[in-house]
Amino acid sequence: MKAEIIAVGSELLTPFRQDTNSLFLTERLNELGVEVHFKTVVGDSRADLVAVARIAMTRADIVILMGGLGPTEDDLTRECVAEALGIELHRDPEIITELYKRFAERRMKMPENNTRQADVLDGAVLLRNPNGTAPAQWLQTNWEGDRRYLMLLPGPPQELKPLFDSQCLPRLKEVLPPQFISKRVLKVAMGESACDARIAPLYTKVPNVQTTILAHGGEVEIHLQSRADRQEEAERRVEELAGELEEELDDCVISSGGESLEQIVGYYLQMRGATLAVAESCSGGMMAERITSVPGSSRYFLGGAVVYSNELKTKLAGVPAKLIAEHGAVSREVAVALAEGIRERTKATFGVGITGIAGPTGGTPEKPVGLVYIALSDGKDNEVVERRLHGDRERIRLWASFTGLDLIRRKLI
Amino acid sequence: MKAEIIAVGSELLTPFRQDTNSLFLTERLNELGVEVHFKTVVGDSRADLVAVARIAMTRADIVILMGGLGPTEDDLTRECVAEALGIELHRDPEIITELYKRFAERRMKMPENNTRQADVLDGAVLLRNPNGTAPAQWLQTNWEGDRRYLMLLPGPPQELKPLFDSQCLPRLKEVLPPQFISKRVLKVAMGESACDARIAPLYTKVPNVQTTILAHGGEVEIHLQSRADRQEEAERRVEELAGELEEELDDCVISSGGESLEQIVGYYLQMRGATLAVAESCSGGMMAERITSVPGSSRYFLGGAVVYSNELKTKLAGVPAKLIAEHGAVSREVAVALAEGIRERTKATFGVGITGIAGPTGGTPEKPVGLVYIALSDGKDNEVVERRLHGDRERIRLWASFTGLDLIRRKLI
After folding, report:
1. Residues of B with CB below 8 A from A346's CB?
2. Stretch B113-118: mean pLDDT
3. Is B284 within 8 Å of A296 when comparing Cβ atoms?
4. For residues B224 and B213, what is the distance between their CA atoms, to the nearest angstrom?
């Protein structure tokens, strides 16, 4: 089965906006065994939209149109699809009544235009939209002898997603052969290409598992997916390859259930009844920000200091001024002193210190932009790592905070 | 002139990856007076790609294909476009020599496949790609009597963008009528719909200026663009409408040259020779992180405290424990004490304090999730604002940090 996803709306043909619904729909369709062969974006132009709908009918079994279902003159999807298919629209009296009711409840007079939202393709099923006024439509039809499944969906993601899941997915499942799919996401703390090189030889060990490596925000994700005749078989394959990968990648594996590094660090800290405090220079609060992005992080995160100036390193994190004068603010010694200092002041179980040069200026031949020291202290032992990070200021800060989080994770494994 | 942008690559039809080049290309084409009428994504399938290329030739004057120019079997753009247009490919000996040289310099043997990258459409101009091995192609041709401009570009953005700007843009400018365009971006500190309602009546005051309102990351951007017969005329119109908008929106205007709120706050602080420190609870370091995202922020940002626990509010920011016990950690009084406390401890010119309930749990009927207090202290006066923010944890933290930054901006205007 082939699918085409069509996003309708002139705003999607500007430099400012982009369709994102199609990623969601592609994931769902793939789970049903349907491959997306074409994605099209077309503006609110009658001729263009009719032509695009007609082309889609010739080349895809499942055609999903998103957007253009509102009440305005620009909302042309209903009538253009009708024209493309050579069928009529009829006005659904029940929907009109509902629209009037909706406006009456808000003590507003309904503009005449709104009745257009009750126009239904002959033969289509109306799908209620609980999060907006425009109902969706589902149509099974034939095109030159072949079966076609056509969906007209609202454009806003908060309307489209629940509507698709609750009303389109069950209908598609009824008409498509059953699928048995298993999926797994491993998150890994290592570079994308290093990871790829390490695990590429393992792919062949378990046949029929599709793997995709994605890098974003300092993490690498390995997506595993298998499709089989039976659910158990799909799960067994994914399980087996995931096991091989986890063994190979060892302590570089952050999580195997999709959890983020921040979440995993939180789990481990809570499991141990431990608490954390951080003292950050070059990362400027990014590590604290990432930790506190997790709901409930107040249970294990006490807080921290953002110590950009040398005076604050001393004042808030207790780094001796003499140490800074001797070794420089960006040094192994100061990173350790930050970690120890913030731990002592806050009485946290663990303290993390980060100091470095985020750039673009401030580097020297001995201490170049990208040089970062990250230390972890538990009151007895100190660990400190030196990193030479590459990329722009944002990337260096991102990786510095990532490394700080990963240092705690490895400590607690 | 109508354009179609075609992204080629099966990976762009998965749930994981999305074409982003088309936003860049659309911006450039619009500046040339060309509207994008269609965007298409197609996989590495011969039949699909030939069909898509043929459809594009029938409905667009300018056709840009991206991707599928590499050396592998999956890279089909060259041969599929040749088939769609009914023309031949020839192998360019100069490119082959260059490819061999490139590999030799790296002491690698060139795989035979790589010679496919030297296949050129008959009549096309080869465009050197300084950032990759796959050269691009430019072809002026006719299709059923109409002029067509066809471009084959590499997929990776870091290759496509410089190549388009240096080699396609000048060629397009030669064949298209000259364009006189002026642009301006205003950033505004207010809600999207409130902003729209305030300025909508003004649009008509200056005809022929296109306005787009975009919201992201707590800021609202108003994009103005005008096209005219003369450059001065385009600039005059944009200038005039920008002036009207700035007058109407008054101190809500953050910047009129595209600068971010963080940058503007930095400019103002530096202009005054002033410094800043922050004490954050619910925003968890996000305000510090945003300030320090600006290069050179160490000149005016001393640092701050992330004080999640009540003990740290006292210890790092000097908030009296009694005050917290009396009014609660989330209160007007504690916000002021945080701002004053961090200012005093750091000897900064200004101190900002943020305390609130980011959720999803921790709210009460009196102090619901989203209640945030933000205070600014300069040692003499204190300002404090109360906000009831809506949305999820991330949005509440984002708006809390945004409001903190905006409080300083308004103080320094």
Report:
1. 309, 311-312, 315-316
2. 87
3. no
4. 9
Distance (Å, whole) CA A36 – CA A22: 10
Calpha distance B176→B61 (Å, rounded): 11
Among A12, A13, A290, most B C-beta atoms within 10 A, so best to mutate, is A13
Query: CA–CA separation, A413 vs A295, rounded Å?
Result: 22
ipTM: 0.86
Q: What share of chain B is helix, strand, coil (3-state, %, to 5)?
A: 45, 25, 30
Are both B2-175 and B180-255 of the same fold?
Answer: no
Nearest to B214 among A16, A45, A301 (CB): A16
pLDDT score recorded for residue A232: 96
Rounded Cα gap, residues A173 and B194, in angstroms? 43
Both structure tokens of B188: 């505004």
Strand partners for A387: A372
Given the DSSP bridges, would you call strands A2-8 and A35-42 parallel, antiparallel or unpaired? parallel
Contact between B163 and B153 (Cβ < 8 Å):
yes
Tell me which fold the domain A2-175 belongs to. Answer: Molybdenum Cofactor Biosythetic Enzyme; Chain A (3.40.980)
Interface of A with B in 88-117 (CB under 8 A): none
- The pLDDT value recorded for residue B217 is 66
Residues 270..289 of A with a Cβ closer than 8 Å to B: which? 277-278, 280, 283-289
Domain ranges of chain B: 2-175, 180-255, 261-412
CA distance A223 to A187: 9
pLDDT one-digit tens code per residue, A209-250: 999 888 876 789 999 999 998 999 999 999 999 999 999 999
pLDDT of residue A26: 97
Q: Which of A187, A301, A191 is nearest to A254 (CA)?
A: A187
Q: Which fold has domain B261-412?
A: Maf protein (3.90.950)
Burial B343-369 (b: 16+ CB within 10 A, else e): bebbebbbbbbbbbbbbeebeeeeeeb
Give residue-wise pLDDT tens across range B285-330: 999 999 999 999 999 999 999 999 999 999 999 999 999 999 999 9
Is the Cβ pair A48, B38 closer than 8 Å?
yes
What confidence score (pLDDT) does residue B111 get? 83
User: Does residue B291 contact residue B405 with C-beta atoms inside 8 Å?
Assistant: yes
Q: Is the dihedral angle over the CA atoms B85, A40, B17, A232 positive or is it negative? A: negative
Sheet of B180-188: strand order equals B209-216, B219-228, B180-188, B253-255
pLDDT tens across A95-145, in order?
A: 899 888 888 888 888 888 888 899 999 999 999 998 988 899 999 999 999
With b meaning 16 or more CB within 10 Å and e meaning fewer, what string describes B66-92? bbbbbbeeebbbbbbbbbbbeeebeeb
Cβ atoms A408, A374 nearer than 8 A: no
C-alpha to C-alpha distance for B387 and B406, rounded to whole angstroms? 13
pTM: 0.87
Residue carrying the six token digits 């205070």: B375
The CATH classification number of A180-255 equals 3.30.70.2860
